[in-house]
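Hi all, a correction to my earlier message: I attached the wrong file for Rhodanese-like domain-containing protein. Here's the right sequence:
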Amino acid sequence: MTDVIAREELAAAIEADSVTVLDTLGPGYYEKAHLPGALVLVESDVESTAGQLLPDRDAAIVTYCANEACRNSHNVAVKLRALGYPNVRVYRAGIQDWAEAGLPVEEGA
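and the right structure:
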């Protein structure tokens, strides 16, 4: 099981600019709404792009997708750990929880 992060802790980490946030839903969803500063990384691209997108393997990384039913964030986290990224956590509640809490989202690519 991957480590999870709560909304409050993630919001504080984003505010402090101490985490890399990964949207695992894909570009179409990302353009509609994403967490502040998030980058796109879908499961099928992890092996081919993680090294370029995430050069610091020790950096704090959080993956998220739509909600707790969505498995994309978990799957990407598992793949990143297998590639040697030890500090990967999952925001299981996803962007649905974030937006419903009234926290800011960004639009566009």
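Sorry for the mix-up. The mean pLDDT is 96.
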